[in-house]
Design a protein that fits this description.
mainly alpha, 4 strands
Length: 573
């Protein structure tokens, strides 16, 4: 690892840590109904929305009612996006000359579910499939609203641990409106203006035809790019305006835009650990969650950088080319990476997006070394617990905490308690279901894909271990609501469009409903005082045990898949 890489990573994590407290405190105030500086402007807008929608924002909802509202909203959002995509050719700003990918029923359905679950899995090239109106009205609005819904569920989950002897987790519509108006819109507005300043287009101009230096012709896509590009990161969505996403110079022109984009992905999910501590009155537990997340994040940066900086062994052996650093050369595997970003910025993006529930990318993962790609795959297989998506990352990590408490309680005979509340068999049943849903979906659908003709048809360029990795990578990405992809998997087919829908719904809806049910059970309990039989959960010892439990559970679930994919590919290279 070079010194420049180390400095970049330290500065990035330092900025995330520095912003976690003020951002987390702000969100705690927003969702607790306390006064904040935007109230003067946004308060009247909020009240108007409630009047128009006939919403009683003060009515408390049980976990079941909250979950039903979340489910209904997600379904309506998916239907809205689907309708816009299916009729886009009859709406304004549809350029039939350049929209060359047919908007089939399966592709529209896949995209609608994708953007309504913050997965933004893209089985299409944006500039050749989506009209300007679809990009703005369907995909950009979906990115805002789906992100707000996820954040709302995360806040309701926190309330379950903060409240005592209550059945309510808050009001979904109150949390949704506040997440949109108080959190996402102001930050995205500033971020989009920043992107325009850095050179990202925001127009409705026709595509530009140009002649290259070699005399060939080139079509340069235009459009309202800055409108979508910042919220795709802030809302942990990831679906880009272009087929190559953040590798395109119009979407991500400089190292500064890349750095700010990665902060947009990581800061709010990381800040929710402080929000958790603030709302529950247990700040040390909140910082412990942040510390474990940062530990796994740092490990991913280290392993990925060492793998990519060491070069591609297959190229070294086949072409007798030395790619490692030395002799004044930085070295490393630059295949598939943009020169303006280099290895360090590419790795920072890979680790941030694969951890953060955001499928944005600035380099081609198909060209990574097996271990470098294996890190991104392992991050997604852990299931959005390392910062993760808005709301989802926080409750994913807390569910792992509860599982760890139960397991350690069994081993040492301590009372399984968290924040003064007992982890009873009712909670454990739901936690166990939460933990096994992810591997069942990923390995089940991935297994079907690699043994059926329809699944193997998507492997147009790569087979063997690399092809297996592509397939598992896709289903891990869909179930983790991430959207990251290894580009040579041809996923625009009925088989992949429909099976990815199953994965996305399971990863978003099923896990969210299970998390809400656990929060509801905890909200009904009273808080107990700590005793000699209570396991301390705000200590270095527990952080180590939690980290070990995460590694063991992930390893037991997915080591076989990793062994058949990136591990054996590295051993054969």
């Amino acid at each position: 690892m070079t010194w420049s890489s180390l400095v970049l990573y330290v500065v990035f994590l330092g900025v995330v840590a520095a912003l976690a407290r003020p951002a987390g405190a702000y969100m705690a105030n927003v969702f607790s109904g306390r006064r904040t500086w935007p109230d003067i402007v946004l308060g009247p807008v909020e009240r108007a929305i409630y009047r128009i929608g006939g919403i009683d924002e003060k009515r408390e909802m049980t976990s079941g009612e909250y979950g039903i509202c979340f489910l209904q909203f997600s379904a309506l959002l998916a239907i809205f996006i689907y309708v816009i995509l299916r009729i886009q050719e009859h709406l304004p700003w549809f350029d039939s000359a350049h929209m060359t990918t047919p908007m089939t029923h399966s592709l529209a359905a896949n995209t609608a579910v994708s953007f309504s679950t913050t997965t933004t899995w893209q089985a299409y090239g944006g500039e050749t499939t989506m009209s300007y109106l679809s990009q703005m009205l369907a995909l950009t609005s979906g990115s805002f609203l789906a992100a707000a819904a996820g954040l709302a569920v995360g806040i309701a989950f926190i309330r379950g641990f903060a409240r005592e002897r209550q059945t309510g987790l808050g009001n979904f519509w109150f949390d949704l409106v506040r997440a949109t108006l108080w959190v996402l819109v102001p930050i995205a507005l500033v971020g989009s203006v920043f992107l325009i300043w850095q050179g990202v287009p925001a127009n409705l101009s026709d595509y530009t035809s140009a002649t290259t230096v070699e005399g060939g012709s080139q079509t340069i896509a235009q459009g309202p790019i800055a409108v979508l590009e910042f919220i795709k990161n802030l809302g942990t969505n990831g679906g880009g305006f272009f087929n190559v996403n953040g590798a395109h110079p119009f979407a991500n022109p400089t190292s500064l835009t890349n750095f700010v984009g990665m902060l947009a992905i990581a800061v709010l999910p990381a800040s929710l650990t402080y929000t958790f501590g603030r709302m529950t009155g247990r700040q040390r537990e909140g910082w412990l969650l942040f510390g474990v997340m940062a530990l796994f994040f740092s490990a991913g940066l280290l392993i990925s950088t060492l793998a990519e900086q060491g070069g591609n062994h297959a190229i070294t052996q086949a072409a007798n080319v030395e790619e490692s650093a030395g002799g004044g050369q930085p070295g490393g595997n630059m295949e598939g990476k943009e020169v303006r970003f280099g290895i360090s910025n590419s790795i920072l993006t890979s680790v941030t997006t694969s951890n953060g529930g955001t499928g944005s990318f600035n380099s081609m993962h198909d060209a990574y070394t097996p271990i470098g790609n294996g890190v991104a795959l392992a991050n997604m297989l852990l299931g959005e617990i390392i910062f993760g998506g808005l709301g989802t990352g926080l409750y994913g990590m807390v569910m792992m905490v509860l599982l760890t408490i139960f397991l350690t309680g069994l081993m040492v005979g301590r009372t399984p308690e968290y924040l003064g509340k007992r982890v009873t068999p009712e909670e454990i049943k739901r936690i166990a279901l939460y933990v096994i849903v992810f591997p069942i979906v990923v390995l089940g659908l991935g297994g079907i894909a690699v043994v059926t003709g329809a699944g193997k048809a998507g492997l147009t360029l790569n087979h063997g271990a690399h092809g297996f990795t592509e397939t598992i990578f896709g289903y891990a990405s869909a179930t983790a609501n991430n959207g990251l992809t290894m580009a040579s998997l041809n996923a625009n087919s009925n088989f992949y469009n429909y099976t990815m829908i199953v994965a996305m719904i399971a990863g978003r809806i099923v896990l969210a409903l299970l998390a809400l049910s656990v929060a509801g059970l905890f909200a009904e309990q009273g808080r107990r005082k700590m005793s000699l039989g209570t396991l301390p959960t705000a200590s270095l010892q527990f952080a180590i045990v939690l980290s070990g439990a995460i590694a063991i559970v992930g390893g037991l679930s997915f080591f076989g898949a990793l062994a058949l994919g990136p591990i054996i590919e590295r051993l054969l290279s």
